[in-house]
Design goal:
Blueprint (H helix, E strand, L loop, with lengths): L1 H15 L29 E5 L19 E5 H15 L26
C-alpha cells in the first residue's frame, strides 16, 4: 500500500512542523483516510512540497548535511507555488488531482517560508 506510506510521511512532516504550513504558517489538516487519488480535498490538507521549485538544479541533488528536500505544506500553498514556478519557467502541469479540485480564489501566496 504505497498510498498509506505517503500519507504517513505527510503526517510525520506535518507533526515535525507542529501542523503549521512551511510557507504560510496556517494550521493544516491531516490527509483524509482512505486516500482516494483524484478526489477533491480541503485546501488546508497537508501535502509534501519540494523546497526547491521545478527547474532548480538543487532539486536533483541528494540532500547533504541534514538538508531538507521536502517540507509539509498546505495544499493551497503547494498548488500556488507549483503554478507560479511552472508559469515562470514555461513548464507543463502534471497534477493527479481533478482540475476542479485546483480551482480557488485567493490572494497570492508567499514563495518564501514565513518567519
Amino acid at each position: 500500500m504505497a498510498g498509506n506510506k505517503i500519507v504517513r510521511r505527510r503526517n510525520e512532516e506535518a507533526k515535525r512542523q507542529d501542523w503549521k504550513c512551511w510557507w504560510c504558517q496556517i494550521p493544516m489538516t491531516p490527509v483524509p483516510m482512505p486516500w482516494v487519488n483524484g478526489q477533491a480535498y480541503p485546501l488546508t490538507m497537508v501535502t509534501l512540497d519540494h523546497i526547491y521549485p521545478k527547474g532548480d538544479p538543487r532539486r536533483k541533488h541528494a540532500p547533504r548535511n541534514g538538508e531538507r528536500r521536502y517540507v509539509a505544506a498546505c495544499r493551497l500553498c503547494n498548488e500556488e507555488r507549483g503554478k507560479h514556478h511552472e508559469k515562470a519557467n514555461g513548464l507543463k502541469r502534471h497534477s493527479r488531482l481533478k482540475p476542479n479540485a485546483l480551482q480557488f480564489d485567493c490572494q497570492p501566496l508567499p514563495l518564501e517560508p514565513a518567519s
